[in-house]
Amino acid sequence: MSRVKVGDEVVVISGKDRGKRGKIIKKLPREDRIMVEGVNVVKRHVRPTRRGQASGIVEGEALIHASKVMLICSRCGKRARMGIKTLKKEGRLRFCKKCGEVID
Ligand SMILES: [Zn+2]
């Protein structure tokens, strides 16, 4: 199971975009696939859907596998190994194993 979610700041750890940082802008619920701002940008050919609209090539992010990214801790600013702890009130929370900061 993936521990990242939309809005998380992550860094890419493998592939052509290795080292890039960005925010998760989309996540497919059942697959571990995510879309990260500025990462895995591909060119797509588009056809006009309305009259007058230009066809051409647009650039946009494509999905990547969630295992290719690591969360960046907002406190220590480093790629962080996440732990999960369960609290009575808040339920399951993610925290940074380095500095203990709760992410959620
Ligand atoms: Zn941290």
From TrEMBL:
**CC per GO annotation:** ribonucleoprotein complex; ribosome
Ranges of residues in domain KOW: 3-30
**Pfam families, alphabetized:** KOW (PF00467), ribosomal_L24 (PF17136)
Q: Which domain of life is it from?
A: Bacteria
Cell membrane in keyword set:
no
The family database entries (InterPro entries) matched by this protein are listed as:
KOW (IPR005824), Rib_uL2_dom2 (IPR014722), Ribosomal_uL24 (IPR003256), Ribosomal_uL24_C (IPR057264), Ribosomal_uL24_CS (IPR005825), Ribosomal_uL24_KOW (IPR041988), Translation_prot_SH3-like_sf (IPR008991)
Which PROSITE patterns does this entry report, sorted A to Z? Answer: RIBOSOMAL_L24 (PS01108)
Q: Which GO terms describe its biological process?
A: translation
Alphabetically, the GO molecular function entries are: rRNA binding; structural constituent of ribosome
Q: Which UniProt keywords apply?
A: Ribonucleoprotein, Ribosomal protein, RNA-binding, rRNA-binding
Write down the CDD domains for this protein, in alphabetical order. KOW_RPL26 (cd06089)
Q: Which family does it belong to?
A: Belongs to the universal ribosomal protein uL24 family.
The family database entries (PANTHER family) matched by this protein are listed as: MITOCHONDRIAL RIBOSOMAL PROTEIN L24
Subunit structure as annotated in this protein's UniProt entry:
Part of the 50S ribosomal subunit.
HAMAP family associated with the record:
Ribosomal_uL24_B (MF_01326_B)
Q: What does this protein do?
A: One of the proteins that surrounds the polypeptide exit tunnel on the outside of the subunit.
This chain belongs to which protein, by name? Large ribosomal subunit protein uL24
| Protein source organism | Aerophobetes bacterium
Q: What are the leading ranks of the lineage?
A: Bacteria, Candidatus Aerophobota
Name the gene. Answer: rplX
